[in-house]
Amino acid sequence: MPKVHQDWQYIMRIQRQEGKVAQYTIAFYRQSKEWYDEIRYDSHERKHGKQISAPHLHMKIRSAFKGDPERAVEEIKGIIDNYLGNIEGIAKR
Description:
By secondary structure, the chain is an alpha+beta fold. Helices cover about 25% and strands about 50% of the residues. It folds into 2 domains: about 1-60, no CATH class; about 65-93.
């Protein structure tokens, strides 16, 4: 059963070995009519058919269609310039 934080639902999937946490995924999501937003943290990824430790954060936030690719590039640069440092700071803790 998903838990709730503000208007986001979230689920934690934890795999244990010998009573210790071996790997986990945390997925926050919220649904709209046409799209969903997701913020996910994974402790591992599959590489060459094996699970390896590779902690990483995924974010997928809905956006209006960018008819002008140059404008989209500028908006992404704005996200990098204004928000990425804060996100990276949280992710590195």
